[in-house]
Design brief:
The chain is mainly beta and 129 residues long. It is built from three helices and seven strands.
């Protein structure tokens, strides 16, 4: 389970949402959503996602296996405008299986590019190894 899986997670296309509850986090009203994978091809079968009610920005996500085991937690921080949208530029990931281990992804620049379809084939990806 690479941290890139968390950074690339497609919550809209890969999961079905259900509102579980509303909580106050750091003084802000936050909706807690349960996301269930639409099929088995998704890395994480279940995600709990905390979304700030005021601006709909993600605050935190917990990623679970199909058996219900917590694998990783991700905090979404430092929202800035990049590539035409307001995005989190800092993702702090904690590994639930290795207590105390943390990874941080920071984005400083983002560019949208058109890529040819061939880039997304297995044969092309083998050339990158």
């Amino acid at each position: 389970m690479a941290n890139g899986d968390l950074a690339r997670a497609n919550f809209v296309g890969d999961y079905s949402p259900r509102l579980l509850r509303t909580e106050v986090v750091d003084g802000e009203k936050t909706d807690v959503l349960e996301l269930t994978a639409v099929d088995r091809s998704v890395t994480y079968q279940r995600v709990l996602l905390w979304v700030r009610h005021a601006n709909h920005h993600p605050h935190k996500a917990e990623f679970y296996t199909a058996s219900g085991r917590l694998l990783k937690t991700c905090l979404y921080q430092k929202f800035e405008r990049m590539a035409g949208k307001l995005r989190p530029t800092r993702l702090v990931m904690e590994d639930a299986l290795r207590k105390g281990e943390q990874s941080v992804l920071e984005y400083s620049a983002m560019k949208l590019r058109d890529l040819p379809d061939k880039v997304f084939t297995k044969d092309y990806l083998k050339r990158l190894e």
